[in-house]
Design brief:
By secondary structure, this protein is mainly α. The chain is built from 20 helices and no strands. α19 packs antiparallel against α20. It is globular.
C-alpha cells in the first residue's frame, strides 16, 4: 500500500502545491514592497513620477496574480491570506500625509463642526459663525471653503463620531480603513459562496488604486460601499437586512441609489416598504438641508467637471447642462433595459455603475472603487487597466502647477480611456473567434 502524498494543508514542504503557494506569497510580498516604499514618501504629489512608477509596478504584481488565479485556487486558507495581505498593504500607507487630495480634511472639519453643535449644511467653512473652530492644521487645508457640505446625513454622522473621539486625519483614515477591510471580508465570503474560492477578492482587496485612494488619501467611499455590498449579499437570504443596508448606503453617499431598482424587484413587500420609507425620508431631509446659495450639493451637480470621458462628447453636442440631462436619461434607459432582461442584481448594478461613471461629468480616480468592488465576481481586464491608468488624472509624471485647477489634457484622456477600450475590443474579438471556431468544428 502506497503512502498518500502529503499536501500543503498538512504542512508538507514536499507537496506539489508549495511552488504555487510560494509564487502567490512572492506576489503579495512584491505589493507590500511597493506600498512600503510609497508609505515612506513624504509627499506623493511632490514626487508624482516616482509614486506613479511604484503604482505601475504594483499593478504588474496584481495583474500576474489575477492572470494566474487558476494555478492558486487549490491552495488552503486563501480567505485569511487575502485579508491579512489587504491589511498589511493598507497599514503601510495609513500614516502617509494625503497630498493627492484634500477631501479628508473636509471630513475632519465637518465632523468637528457637528461635534460642536453647529451644522455644516447651514454654514460653509468660511462662515463667521465657525471662526472659533478654525485651527492651523485642518481648516487651512479644507477645500471649497465658500460652499456648505455635499455629504448625506449618515456620512456626517460618521464624521462627527470620529471627531468626538479625535478630530485628526489619522483617526478619520482609521474609520475608513475599518469599513474598507470589512468590505474585503464581505467580498471574500461572497467569492467563496459563488466561486468556491476567495482568491477573486484580490481584484478589490489588493488593487493599488483603491489602497492608495482609501488608506492613503482617506476617501470615505468604503463607508457607503460596505453597506451596498451587504445589501447585495443579503438580497435573497435576508431581504429586510438588505433593505436596511441599502438605505444606510444611500444616506451615506448617493451612488447606491443606482442599485435600488435591481434590489427592489427582488425584495418582498416589507423590505420594499422599509427602503422607501427610510431612503425617502432621509433624502427629503437631505434635499431640504442642502438648499441655498452656498450649497455645495448644487454646485457639484450643476457645474463640476473633471476627467470625464463620454460626457465630453455629450457636452460638445448638447452643451454642458443638457449633456447632464442626456447622461441621466441614458443611464435610466440602461437600467430599464437591464430590468427587462431580468439580469442578476449584482450584474445589473455593475453595468449601471460602469455606464454612469463613463457618462458622468466627474470621474475622480477613487470613484472607480464603486465598480471595482464588483470585480471579484467577474473580473474585467479593461476596467482593471483603467484603474491603473486613472493615476494620470493627477498629472503626468510631475505635479501640475495648480493641482486644484488641473484637468488632464484630451490627448492623455484618450490614452486613459482608449487603452481599456482597445483591450475590451480585442478580448471581444477573441471571444467571437473562439465561438466561431467552436461552431465550425466537426
Amino acid at each position: 500500500m502506497t503512502r498518500p502524498q502529503l499536501g500543503i494543508v498538512e504542512g508538507g514542504v514536499g507537496s506539489p502545491r508549495w511552488p504555487q503557494a510560494l509564487e502567490l506569497g512572492a506576489l503579495a510580498a512584491g505589493l507590500a514592497w511597493c506600498f512600503t516604499l510609497a508609505g515612506a514618501m513624504p509627499s506623493w504629489s511632490a514626487e508624482l513620477g516616482r509614486f506613479q512608477a511604484l503604482m505601475a509596478v504594483a499593478f504588474v504584481f496584481l495583474g500576474v496574480g489575477l492572470a494566474r488565479m487558476p494555478r492558486y485556487r487549490g491552495l488552503p486558507h486563501l480567505g485569511p491570506f487575502v485579508v491579512v495581505v489587504a491589511f498589511v498593504l493598507r497599514a503601510a500607507v495609513i500614516a502617509t500625509p494625503p497630498t493627492l487630495s484634500d477631501d479628508v480634511y473636509r471630513y475632519v472639519w465637518e465632523g468637528r463642526v457637528l461635534a460642536h453643535g453647529q451644522s455644516p449644511y447651514e454654514h460653509a467653512p468660511d462662515a463667521p459663525e465657525l471662526a472659533p473652530l478654525r485651527d492651523d492644521s485642518i481648516y487651512p487645508k479644507v477645500n471649497h471653503r465658500e460652499l456648505s457640505t455635499i455629504y448625506p446625513p449618515m456620512a456626517e454622522a460618521g464624521f462627527a463620531l470620529v471627531a468626538s473621539l479625535s478630530a485628526s486625519v489619522l483617526a478619520m483614515k482609521l474609520w475608513i480603513l475599518l469599513h474598507d477591510l470589512l468590505l474585503v471580508i464581505v467580498l471574500v465570503r461572497w467569492c467563496e459562496r459563488r466561486e468556491g474560492s476567495a482568491l477573486g477578492a484580490i481584484a478589490y482587496a489588493w488593487n493599488p488604486l483603491l489602497i492608495a485612494e482609501f488608506a492613503g488619501s482617506g476617501h470615505h467611499d468604503p463607508t457607503a460601499m460596505l453597506p451596498l455590498a451587504l445589501a447585495c449579499y443579503w438580497v435573497d437570504r435576508r431581504p429586510l437586512a438588505s433593505s436596511l443596508a441599502l438605505s444606510f448606503a444611500v444616506l451615506t453617499k448617493l451612488v447606491p441609489l443606482l442599485a435600488l431598482p435591481f434590489l427592489f424587484i427582488r425584495w418582498p413587500w416589507r423590505a420594499r416598504a422599509l427602503a422607501l420609507v427610510m431612503t425617502g425620508t432621509g433624502l427629503a431631509g437631505f434635499y431640504w438641508l442642502t438648499r441655498g446659495e452656498h450649497s455645495g450639493f448644487t454646485a457639484y451637480f450643476a457645474h463640476w467637471r473633471n476627467n470625464e470621458s463620454l460626457f465630453h462628447l455629450l457636452a460638445l453636442v448638447f452643451g454642458d447642462l443638457r449633456a447632464r440631462y442626456a447622461a441621466g436619461l441614458l443611464a435610466a434607459g440602461l437600467i430599464a433595459a437591464l430590468l427587462v432582461r431580468r439580469v442578476e442584481a449584482a450584474d445589473g448594478i455593475r453595468h449601471t455603475l460602469r455606464a454612469s461613471l463613463l457618462l458622468g461629468p466627474v470621474l475622480h480616480p477613487w470613484y472607480l472603487g464603486w465598480v471595482l468592488m464588483f470585480e471579484p465576481l467577474r473580473i474585467s481586464p479593461p476596467w482593471l487597466l483603467l484603474s491603473a491608468l486613472a493615476f494620470l488624472s493627477y498629472g503626468v509624471l510631475s505635479q501640475p502647477t495648480d493641482p486644484s485647477r488641473y484637468h488632464l489634457a484630451i490627448a492623455w484622456r484618450v490614452l486613459e480611456y482608449g487603452a481599456p477600450l482597445s483591450l475590451a475590443l480585442i478580448l471581444a474579438w477573441q471571444r467571437r473567434r473562439r465561438i466561431q471556431s467552436f461552431g465550425d468544428a466537426p
